[in-house]
Amino acid sequence: MTDTEVLIIGAGPAGLTAATYLGRFRRRTLVIDAGEPRACWIPLSHNMPGFPSGVSGADILTRMREQAEEFGAVIEPGRVERLAHDGDGFVAHVQGREIRARAVLLATGVVDHHPDLPGVERAVQRALVRICPICDGYEATDKAVAVIGHDDKGAREAAFLRTYSDRVTLIHIGPPQALTRHEELDRLGVELIVAPLEAVNLEQDRVTALGWGGRTRAFDLVYSALGTSPNAELAQGLDARLAPDGRLEVDLHQATSVPGLYAAGDVVRGLNQIAVATAEAAVAATDIHNRLRRIDGLTVSD
Question: Where does the FAD/NAD(P)-binding domain start and stop, copy by copy (predicted)?
Fold first, then answer.
């Protein structure tokens, strides 16, 4: 049995930011890192505040990890298999080990649904297949862009990308009835292709061909609008309240419906952005610290 004051599950931008704050609040903080957070897929981010020339996801995570450790946070590899109540706190089961904590922050993120195509993960790493037009739509300016979707989310993303280019094509690979925005796409000048994809060919810095039904087309960039799945199973095990999309509902202090359990970053319903995740983590860490102070009788009345 290992005891800590605050357990953070997830070592992406949200988890590491919270670890820095809690370390500076002089809280014993343990971060469990399951490896490969979503941010590590970012080849170069140009909308990260403070980096006008861009910064890679790996560099962001390295800097944030060093900062958290500088202030005493302990970061260990592992995977939390189960989270349960333990008196007024929690106990986490981590590969045969038990960790008791007074408070827990979930920074477990989401899993992207990539197109089922050979080489697609490498294409994401090379920024040829992208997953976030809010992050990098600017880089699509005046380029030939394809959006792969299986429902009206694809139509919404294609419409959003018309901000940057008048050469946007939606490739709808889901059931025909799942797409209901045909007239709006036509009004916006978005080309629509309804067919399952069969192949993606990459060459240097371009998607040289997307193939369907014996036909091929070349694009400069391809966006996947196939959605995500939140990693909220640990909270579900505690009967935390979820939003309709499966993400965690939190209050203005990032507290879930379970006392002492907090959440920040992509696992929380909202905008999947590093800047948002770090802000949520700062709010959560501060409230965790103040909550523990109140429990310990270290505050004065308002």
Answer: 5-281
Mean per-residue pLDDT of the chain: 94
Give the ranges where 115-163 is alpha helix by DSSP (H). 120-125, 133-136, 152-161
- % of the chain at pLDDT higher than 70: 97
Contact 31, 11 (CB under 8 A): yes
Mean pLDDT (whole number) for 175-200: 93
Q: Is 177 exposed, middle or buried (0-12, 13-18, 19+ CB in 10 A)?
A: exposed
DSSP bridge pairs for 100 = 3, 91
Q: Which of 30, 39, 27 lies closest to 9 in space, CA to CA?
A: 30
Q: Give CA–CA dist 222/117, Å, rounded.
A: 13
User: Which one-letter amino acid corresponds to residue 167?
Assistant: R
Per residue in 223-264, pLDDT (tens digit) is 999 999 999 999 999 999 999 999 999 999 999 999 999 999
Angle between helices 274-295 and 13-24 (to 10 degrees): 40
Side chain identity, residue 53:
S
Structural domains in the chain, sorted by start:
2-111+228-295 (3.50.50.60), 114-225 (3.50.50.60)
Three-state DSSP string of 43-88: CCECCCCCCCCCECHHHHHHHHHHHHHHCCCEEEECCEEEEEEECC
Cα–Cα distance list, 200 to 42, 70, 128 (Å): 20, 44, 11
Instruction: Read off the DSSP letter of residue 119.
Output: T
pLDDT band at 90 (very low <50, low <70, confident <90, very high): very high
Rounded to whole angstroms, the Cα distance separating 191 from 43 reads 28
Positive or negative, the Cα torsion across 48, 223, 35, 265? positive
Q: What is the pTM of this model?
A: 0.95
Helix boundaries (H) for 80-196: 120-125, 133-136, 152-161, 182-188
SS3 300: coil
